[in-house]
Every structure is written in C-alpha cells, then in structure tokens.
UniProtKB/TrEMBL annotation:
It comes from the Bacteria. Residues 20-254 form the AB hydrolase-1 domain. The lineage of its organism: Bacteria, Bacillati, Bacillota, Bacilli, Bacillales. It comes from Mesobacillus campisalis. Belongs to the AB hydrolase superfamily. This is Sigma factor SigB regulation protein RsbQ. It holds the Pfam family Abhydrolase_1.
Length: 274
C-alpha cells in the first residue's frame, strides 16, 4: 500500500466484502457526501472513499495547477488510489463530473473496474445543436466562472440552490454551500473550468466497462437528454430515470440511489453467474 497516496487523497477503507466499491465525489464536494449511500454497501463490499487533491481533507500541498487543468489529472488520482490499494475489478460510483473522470480512468486502465455507476452524468455541458443538448450556452458558463472570481461566496450560495433544485431542503442547501465555501476559490474555479468545458462524447464508443446511468428528474446541471445520449453511445449501459429531483440524489434521495445501484449490481451478478 502506497501510504503517500493514502494520505494525499485522504483515502478511507472499510467494510466486510472482498470486492471493492469506490465512491467518487462530484465538483466542489468531498467523500462525506457519500456517507449514507456508502454505509449501505459495507456489509457486501470493501468500501473505498477518497478526496481529489484540492478537495476535502486531501493534501493541498500536492495540488498542481498543470495536472488538474483537465479531467485527466483527476482520473490519475483515481488510478493512483486503485494502484495504492491494489484494486481489481472494482465497482466505481461517480457523481456528476466524476462519472466522466471514472470513465476516463477505465479507458486508461480497464483492469481496475468491473462496473461504472454514473450518478447525474453529462458527457458535455454545452449545447451543440441539433445533435446534442447539454443544458448550457457558453455565455452562461463563462458568466458562472466570472461570478466565482468576483464573488465566490455569492456564487456558492447561488450554485448550491441550482444544484439541489429543491427549496424544501434548506439544510441540504446549506450543507452543500459549506462544502463549496471550504474549497480554495482558485482551485474551485480551475476544477469548474475543467468540468464545464470538458467534452467526452468522442470517448464513449471506446468504453468497455458495463455502466449504470442514473439520471435525476428536473436536474438543471445534467438534463435527461445528457443521460439518454450516454445510453445511446455506451454499448453496455443501462439507463434509469430517477424519481429524485435535482443533481445530488445521493444526498437528497439516498434510499432510491441505494436501491437502484443494488438492483443493478444484483442483476449483473445473476447475469454473470448465468
């Protein structure tokens, strides 16, 4: 075990299973967002939680503005953790941009992954009519980055509300806001740029790992069209439209998230055994 990586990415491992299940947080978040969902799988899996460098309780001294200028740098974090723990055929559960980060990692070293679970994924956040609807125009995303620079706290408040899209859950909004505010603004802005201007559509035909796509209802960040596009272009994918609304079902609707992941993994296991 590479202790340097374990410390750098604040890696936590628990659970009773032989097979690993790795949870990756989305933009602006850390491993604690997975607490409820991860706990549900600890009896059957070896649960792996981690923080990307620059987030949560990772080693901020290890942050490299060149490495993390693209999602490939974050995919290397995933691969580093897999190597440090000597993982094989793990279930990778990624929220939001981590869906694409996990996919990139699987293209580089597929032996680490048996399954990809994408929660609220988008292969491209920009609209590219008429073939693709990502949900945003370039001017909107540039405005978002400008607000981060001018008024980071104001951006965090606004973005937390947009992400959750659920006015009946003020405590969750505050929790998300706090996570955004605890991140270094320069690092957060660079991660935002790497996230929102990424386009992984060309990578989809090369993906070999079976994939579950969980798409929320009324998700402003990753519309249903993004999930449907993924399903059409990932040859070994299953698409599930969730009843959960917003962009963070693992926080707002953990029971449904757990149930859909478990159902898929059980069905996949039965299929393999058959």
């Amino acid at each position: 075990m590479d202790q340097d990586i374990i410390v750098r990415n604040n890696v936590k491992v628990f659970g009773n299973g032989d097979k690993a299940m790795m949870f990756a947080p989305g933009f602006g978040c850390d491993q604690t967002v997975w607490k409820t969902v991860a706990e549900a799988f600890k009896d059957d899996y070896r649960v792996v939680l981690f923080d990307y460098v620059g987030s949560g309780n990772s080693d901020l001294q290890a942050y490299d503005f060149i490495r993390y200028n693209t999602l490939e740098g974050y995919a290397q974090d995933v691969l580093d953790v897999c190597a440090a723990l000597d993982l094989e055929q793990a279930v990778f559960v990624g929220h939001s941009v981590s869906s694409m980060i996990g996919m990139i990692a699987s293209l580089r070293q597929p032996q680490y992954f048996s399954t990809l679970v994408m929660v609220g994924p988008s292969p491209c956040y920009l609209n590219d009519p008429p073939e693709y609807l990502g949900g945003f125009e370039r001017e909107q995303l540039q405005g978002l980055l400008e607000l981060m620079e001018k008024n980071y706290i104001g951006w965090a408040t606004m973005f937390a509300a947009t992400v959750l899209n659920n006015s009946s859950r003020p405590a969750l909004k505050e929790e998300l806001e706090e996570r955004f505010c605890s991140t270094d603004p320069l690092i957060a802005r660079q991660f935002a740029e790497a996230t929102f201007f990424s386009d992984n559509r060309k990578d989809l035909p090369r993906v070999t790992v079976p994939t579950l796509i969980l798409q929320c209802s009324d998700d402003i960040i990753a519309p249903v069209s993004a999930g449907e596009y993924l399903h059409q272009h990932l040859s070994k994918s299953v698409f599930k439209q969730m009843e959960a609304t917003g962009h963070c079902p693992h926080m707002s609707h953990p029971e449904e998230t757990i149930q859909l992941i478990r159902q898929y993994l059980n069905e996949t296991a039965v299929g393999v055994l058959a």
